[in-house]
Structure formats: C-alpha cells, structure tokens
Amino acid sequence: MENIILWGAGNRGKVLAQLMDMCNIPITAIVDSNHKLWGKKVGKNIIENPDVLCNKDGLNLCITAAAPLVIEEIREKIKVEYNENINELSYLELIMTIYEKIDIEPLLQAPSSLYCQVIFLKKSRNL
Asked: Which of 29, 89, 94, 112 has a CA-to-CA distance to 1 between 20 and 30 Å?
C-alpha cells in the first residue's frame, strides 16, 4: 500500500494513523476540512489542507468519518473540487488489512481506544 491519504483527524483518523505507524505503513498525508487543525500533528504526521489532493494521480484516500452523510459530502467535495481520479479505500477494509499484520502484544500498552477497536475487530472476524 502506498500513497495513502487519510481524510479526517478525529478519533477514527487518529486510531488508524496509530495502527498504520505500528505496522510501518507510510501515510502520505492526513487532511481535514477544519482549518483550525491544519499544522497540528497526529502521530508523526502534520494535518494538512485538503488542497494537497489537487492534480495528483495515484492517490489512495481513506475517509475516516463515521457518519454516512459526512462521507458522502466528502466524496462529492473530492470529485468537484479536488480530483475525481482518487482511489477510495474503505476504512474498515484498511483496518482489517492492518489487523492481519499486527502483533497484539504492543496493543496491551496502547491507548485503550486503540486496543478496544482491535479487539472488537478480532471478535467480529471470528463470528
């Protein structure tokens, strides 16, 4: 996986960024519509203006928002304002791909929300 951009610096974005860092999966950028977040950090990454998506090919974008209406708004914004040729990665599929690679031991020292999310995915996968 390469050229991965996360859209959203909320809880889900932070958890995904932590998991990606733990698995040494590079994040090309983290973007957010909220200009108050630009320049702040999530892990090793600085939150950027979504304008970084303009006219770039080969990008894989994961929208980390949970609300379906927000996801649709972001998709439309990307299509109209940025780049309609961006490949969208499913948040849950990306988490599951990472889960396949992850060693559970370090999660015992990880923030509880991260640990809970991975345990939930593990249990749901075994159903």
From this structure: 112
